[in-house]
Amino acid sequence: MIKQINHIGISTPDLDKSLGFYRDLMGLELTVDTPFGNNSIDTITDQKDAKGRVVPLKLGDTELEIFEFSNPPAKASDPKRPVCDHGITHIRFEVTNIQQEYDRLREAGVTFHCEPQNAGSVKAVYGRDPDGNVFELLEVL
Fold it and tell me: Is the pTM here over 0.85, yes or no?
């Protein structure tokens, strides 16, 4: 029986830059910074000679696991991929004061699609991490 979502994994070309965003700016807690590369990782990821670093970042009961592969070489993704394209479209962060978080992140150079929008019982806005992955800030009113 499936119990819960344990973590979400993101591959990045620059782990330190992603750490600066998710740990330092968004406030997730770094649990460990681990190099990887062995036969079981090759088997699990279906990659040959997979090597790199992985950092799990914790927020509540969920982790965001960020990978930087040094091997095999990754294909670049479109940092402006529209959210209507198939695949994982965004990660949601629930906040207590969306305007304050939006202002703080925007001042730090984060790109947003628009200002926070009132959608009835919630306010929401989409932004982009340093690799163009979309995240949502949501405040329940």
Answer: yes
